[in-house]
Amino acid sequence: MVACIGIVLVSSGTVVFAQTPSPYVLGFTLDLTGMRADISMGPRRSAQIKIDEINAAGGINGRQLRAIFYDGESDPVKNVKNVKRIVEVDKAVACMGFAAVDASLASLKTAEDGKTLLISGAPCIVSGRSPQKWLFSTCGDQKVASIPELIKNLLDRGSKKIAYIYIDTAFGALGNAAFKSSCEKLGITPAIIEKYVPSVVDLSPQIAHIQASGADGLLITGNVADTVKVLKTARDHGITYPIVCDYAITGPDFIPLAGKYGEGIVTTGQRAIVAHDLPDTDIQKKVCVELYDKYAKQFGAYNNYAGHGWDQVTLIAAALRKINPKLDPAKEKDLDKIRVDLRDGLENLKGVVGVSGVFNYSETDHLGLAEGCYPALVVRDGKWRLYK
After folding, report:
1. Are 272 and 306 in contact (CB under 8 A)?
2. What's the pTM?
3. Most C-beta atoms within 10 A of its C-beta, which of 64, 207, 211, 382?
């Protein structure tokens, strides 16, 4: 990568060459095709919206931001290859995007080898655990953003014996750990815990086990399509008690796919989904309304995952502003210094208001979000609404 050169004619008639500072390259890998495409297009678009906004205001440190987007094809191996290119060929200052836990964790070693931070839009960091040096996230894990809130919702609605069913993936395993931890913390014993493979066709056996357990409340962790399948099977087999679903269902396809089965379903999600319903006292309302309105104006409807791309660029931009502006990302040694300083700067960000919450990163916390960062949402009259 080299600086752009422009020709300038000064009043004396002398021709001088003006250099445009090399941009900060941001490398994204997102699953734009495959089973996770529905949760990747929103972050891709919102990241570009935020980048364009920053560049229009003059960029950062006199430099523009330049985004490079790659398709991870819903395949962790492809995401790893993308990260290798982002680090070694594109010379990006950061690896960004990531729609899934498995893609994030599979790619981390490659980012680490290149001493380049990886900031993910998936819940790949478990709150309370010591963080890995080069890994950050903008997505609250289930321990802070969904499971405790959903269990409390069921308890508030009269459930005393709560059943749990989860998809047998990395995301589901994290949900199961969060469910067990939350139950222990709340002093309750699960009625039963069931799981299913992503390609499941018939969920009748698992639902039968749940019914036999005497449960009077059900929590589901899964992706959009399979969660709808669990939900429909449960209702069609006669389960009438409250059902709540983990936050992955807040994709744009859940409500039309679930139909009548989705009405009244409670989950948690980013505030931007209900941006204009937020009270004026909500510190995140301004940011959420700005993203919602800009996204809807360009693309016709808001995508419920868009907050992750917006937050990633917001956070990287905040950390870049602390970088020595004389360091040139087009020079190898300077790029190495920028990458290290950017990681260190991100780790020290405090009070950054985003869509997922107010971020407070630290040396011991690369998630930076507090419990309850996502509010409870409900499907009411075919739309997402604040539960309270």
Report:
1. yes
2. 0.88
3. 207
